[in-house]
């Protein structure tokens, strides 16, 4: 028996995944391949035979590459491991009987890549379905400042049609001498606003040790731009299993942003919402440059929902509305907008916050544009 025959003989019998096993998520099936830096995946047909799968594995090995089978309830997948994939291998393998398709995996992120998982991921938050052709509007103040402020804002944005409430309790501030948030008291006020309005809440968590606390109050955990590459924090929110809103770092490439999403998903948490919030460029007329390229490209490269934050993206309240509409037109699955009942007195980001009235004026335009684009409301039980 050759080494190859022995290898094949020793493999577990194919399509015999234990029947009691619950349907594995794509993460369970693909994580082992992602960890080995898979270069191509071969998706077998659901009715492929053991012989057909063995033929594929044999051919992969003949090319000096390693084939790793992962078993799914619906279909088995062969990951091709090895750097030197011949350019013609994909077409060659696709001609094999029993093969549904072969896909080259060209990106360093895997679980976050559309190559790996072509269907849109839909992140469910209460009654909201984020991604997959819907449109979500998240609104609220930069920081939770007081009961009066958060309740007024929550009621006003709900009235105007927002789906979710935002508000920072732990604020990452460039200066240590500015308002850094109410901490747990802010979380309690957000929970109170949710109870009053029914709006789920998203709020930032800044350190791994706070994840447990923030997750007790929040529906979605926000990772701020300044923490996009805090890898321990990413892993901790990954382990929490809560939906995560991952902001793009202000000088992060799209690839780095998606690799940060990969950290979260690799912990078994597929519920990641990407958020473009503007990047630093040479331009000084606006706080940041709203990178709508990134919105459209992230939608193409990844299956994750992508939302946009035109408040931080522009830094100017009068630019937030036009850029919110532009984000929707560029393919964003939603927007996050700062709204304050009295922006002139806001403790942070007043200059980029809409008044409740301006937010209410924006919403009919958003809805009209969403209708033109054939986008569903994120609230699926209306
Ligand atoms: C925020 O959402 O208030 C915030 C701090 O955003 P960013 O992390 O994008 O600066
Ligand atoms: Mn802010």
Write a structural description.
The structure is a single chain. The chain contains 13 helices and 15 strands. It has helices spanning 3-10, 26-35, 50-62, 89-94, 147-160, 184-197, 211-217, 231-240, 254-265, 292-301, 310-314, 317-329, 356-372, and strands spanning 40-44, 66-70, 77-81, 99-104, 123-125, 128-130, 134-140, 164-166, 201-204, 220-223, 244-247, 272-276, 306-308, 334-338, 376-377. Helix 5 (147-160) packs parallel to helix 6 (184-197) and helix 5 packs parallel to helix 13. It folds into two domains: 3-104, Alpha-Beta Plaits, CATH 3.30.70; 123-377, TIM Barrel (Alpha-Beta Barrel). Strand 9 (201-204), helix 7 (211-217) and strand 10 (220-223) form a beta-alpha-beta unit. The longest helix has 17 residues, at 356-372. Residues 6-24 have low confidence and may be disordered. Helices cover 36% and strands 17% of the residues. The chain has 382 residues and is an alpha/beta fold. The strands form three sheets. An eight-stranded parallel beta barrel has the order 7-8-9-10-11-12-13-14, surrounded by seven helices. Phosphoenolpyruvate binds at residues 142, 168, 172, 224-226, 247, 277, 312.
